[in-house]
Design goal:
By secondary structure, this protein is an alpha+beta fold. The chain has eleven helices and 17 strands. The protein has helices at about 10-15, 15-25, 35-50, 60-65, 120-135, 155-160, 215-225, 265-285, 310-320, 335-340, 365-380; strands at about 55, 70-75, 85-90, 100-105, 105-110, 145-150, 170-180, 185-190, 190-200, 230, 235-245, 255-265, 290-300, 300-305, 325-330, 345-355, 360-365. Strands 1, 2, 3, 4, 5, 6, 7, 8, 14, 15, 16 and 17 form a twelve-stranded mixed β-sheet that branches. Strand 10 and strand 11 form a beta hairpin. The structure holds zinc ion (ZN). The site of zinc ion has 5 residues, from helix 5.
């Protein structure tokens, strides 16, 4: 009998029940940003059990978090290209603790009172399952690393401060996006955070308003003079927080505003942020007050061109799985930004999570399994 390849061998080796059990276990370990200690410890056990050498960087000393980033390494059995998979260990608080996962037909979701945490524990689960399959079948592989980051949500701090000297891989696959399996993010924006405090002068609004300088009026004038929301196809901006004022009979002496700007191009972001800063300074000056402005570049933009070997390889891998890769830019930042900007070409791959950051977050079992198959296929393609 001639043994013919059906292309289904990988699928056959992924253990669906083991993946479900693993995901359910992980989502029940609380890990809001900064408090990833317990889940990191459990992952250290699991990965060590699968033969990986696990270390942590010490960025928790700088960030005040429970743990640093987890970096696990497995020596290759071949001279294949060293690759890494990355997922973040933290979850958002919407709320995000005491998750009670429910299997609802073909879908895993929370009980509706919390997020699920498939963002990004589905990515972690996909890696663990692929590694299990590699181990139990003695499959050849090149050098492999797993980088499980802390505090991705709300600022990408884990990957920003990651000790990149511990990263030996030449390519990174960040398992941290949603949509159909085959969705690939090759471009992400830079983001600036902009905080400003307008300072005027308090006065009685009825008795002596002419002695006051209204910080509310300064903020209003500044915002009114800003180009905001959709700036162009690559650039967005928003004022998301405004705080100040106590009573109608006081000319408000202080108002704080917090905003952001994003662009797929760093130069466009520079221009947008400069424009917002200028609008605030001009408004404060015009009304006789002052403004203290703090801007911070949370992360810079990245783009992996479609004709690079990395993108071509991923397209081939998906094609062999019968999946058409959909390669596009994202409006959100991810750890992918920092890998690329620290010299490790990286793509963000969907693991099938849906409605992340909401109480309706869920993942289909079939997509979870496909995510495991995808990781396995990537490892095999680099062996
Ligand atoms: Zn995520």
């Amino acid at each position: 009998m001639i043994k013919r390849s059906t292309g289904k061998e990988d699928a056959a080796m992924i253990n669906q029940q083991r993946m479900i059990d693993q995901l359910l276990e992980l989502v029940q370990i609380d890990s809001p940003s900064g408090k990833e200690g317990a889940v990191a410890k459990r992952l250290e056990e699991i990965l060590t059990g699968l033969g990986m050498t696990v270390t942590f960087d010490n960025i928790h000393e700088k960030l005040g978090t429970e743990t640093g980033n987890l970096i696990a390494t497995l020596k290759g059995t071949t001279q294949g290209t060293p690759i890494l998979f990355s997922s973040h260990m933290d979850t958002v608080q919407q709320p995000g603790e005491s998750v009670k996962p429910v299997i609802d037909g073909d879908t895993i979701r929370s009980d509706g009172t919390t997020i699920l945490g498939s963002d990004d524990k589905a990515g972690i689960t996909a890696f663990i399952e692929a590694l299990q399959v590699i181990k139990e079948n003695n499959l050849p592989h090149g050098d492999l690393q797993a980088v499980f980051t802390i505090w991705e949500e709300g600022g990408l701090f884990g990957s920003k401060y990651l000790d990149y000297s511990l990263v030996k891989a030449e390519r990174a696959f960040v398992l941290d996006s949603g949509g159909p399996i085959g969705s690939v993010t090759n471009q992400g924006p830079a983001q600036d955070k902009i905080q400003a405090v307008f300072k005027g002068k308090a006065a009685h609004a009825g008795v002596a308003p002419e002695e006051g300088v209204s910080a509310i009026m300064m903020a209003a004038k500044a915002i009114d003079n800003m180009k905001l929301l959709r700036i162009d196809e690559e650039t967005t901006a928003n004022i998301g927080v405004i705080e100040g004022g106590k009573a109608t009979n006081i000319v408000t002496p202080e108002v704080k505003i917090v905003g952001e700007a994003r662009s797929l191009r760093n130069d466009k972001l520079d221009a947008q942020t400069a424009h917002m800063v200028e609008a605030m300074k001009t408004a404060a000056e015009a009304l006789g007050g002052t403004v203290e402005i703090k801007t911070e570049r949370l992360y810079t933009a990245f783009k992996v061109e479609k004709d690079t070997p990395l993108v071509k390889k991923v397209e081939e891998i998906f094609a062999a799985m019968g999946i058409e890769a959909n390669i596009e830019a994202s409006g959100g930042g991810s750890d992918t930004n920092h890998f690329n900007n620290n010299g490790v070409p990286a793509l963000n791959l969907s693991v099938g999570m849906e409605k992340a950051h909401t109480l309706e977050e869920h993942i289909k079992v079939a997509d979870l399994v496909k995510a495991g198959e995808m990781v396995l296929a990537i490892i095999k393609a680099h062996a």
